[in-house]
Amino acid sequence: MEYDPKKCCMRKKVVLEREPYLAELDKWKDLPFIKIVTGVRRCGKSTLLKIFAQRLLKSGVRPEQIIEINLEDLANQRLTDYQELHRYILERASNSGEYYIFLDEIQQVENFQKAVDSLFLHDNFDIYLTGSNSHILSGELATLLTGRYVQIEMLPLSLKEFKKAFPDKSAEELYKLYLSTTSFPFILEVPSESEFLDRILDGLYNTVVVKDILSRVQLREPTVLTKLTRFCFDSVGNRVSVAKLANSMTSAGTKTDNKTVEKYLRGLIDAFVLYEVDRWDLKGKELLKSLKKYYAVDLGLRRTLLGSGSLADVGHLLENVVFLELKRRGYKVFTGKLDEFEVDFVCTNGQEKIYIQVAASVRDEEVLRRELRPLLRIQDNFPKYLLTLDNDPKASIDGVHKINALDWLLSE
């Protein structure tokens, strides 16, 4: 076969400076808090710290004041011992000036919290950590450092960030590409053909399973875990329970029980592969324990596990994208129950509250009435939105703002 450079060459490396996260790091710089950046593998945490370190250098910080350690680099394997790590940093930071310490993938260090707690005693150390598992924020670290750390949760690319790599595409073309490829930042560096992406995403999923889930969950059944992931990915936007997942898997030929499902489900959530959303009873004003919703961190990862046919579920895909965007914008997100009706998202951020209903299209009058009904029954004056893919002008229907979802996703 003749070599075709257009097909074989990798796309030119693009480094996207993700300003919201950089601004968050800058806001906490030099304050007496440990900065912990968490998120799924390959979402850009390491690159974020590198860019932030470069900005420090440009601001006048000297190179010797910056200590960067990638704890997944084999060259740093001895530093995965917390005492060695502590000793090494103290040797590097031998002077009395300010030091910026960046520890990437800190979960590779067993008992890392002991080293971090000791380093935090030094007033001239500004400490930044990254981790691919929320497990690092539990247990002894949380006990030792309560009130002394801030978590910055990082996600793959938003549609607005994705547009920077494909500026010439219309909103509709961009969204279609966003769904059919991936939101992981490596999309900026590799060909967008599915054969490349599927192999990379499959490798990423297997890495997460081995390093971030099976290594931390006592059970050792990767087949059960993968089938559970598929069930959850296939159910995005639907209300499910642990018992329902266990029964569905058993009926499909994979015998399991509630305890196993619950353990693996927690592993997927801790590794940021899945996000769990609680239900809020708008009338009783309390959290409900049953029937939660789950959303995928990346729809490319979902497509890789479920196949290209999964792209047909337009409404739930849009709901997943909207959920992730709400997380990026700093909202605490719940689903809402109001009598027999369901509100897709009840979102709070401090004193702010908004309600959102998501639908692929509401041009059918019956569908429009169905989607508006729960919002119109809410007895308060907080903003209410109906987001759809209909390319129609904005409208207000009895106080509900009907907006094109792509306009909302690409807005400031």
From TrEMBL:
Gene3D superfamilies: P-loop containing nucleotide triphosphate hydrolases. It comes from the Bacteria. It holds the Pfam family AAA_14. InterPro entries: AAA_14, DUF4143, P-loop_NTPase. Residues 211-360 form the DUF4143 domain. Residues 34-162 form the AAA domain. PANTHER family: ATPASE (PTHR33295:SF20). This is ATPase. It comes from Turicimonas muris.
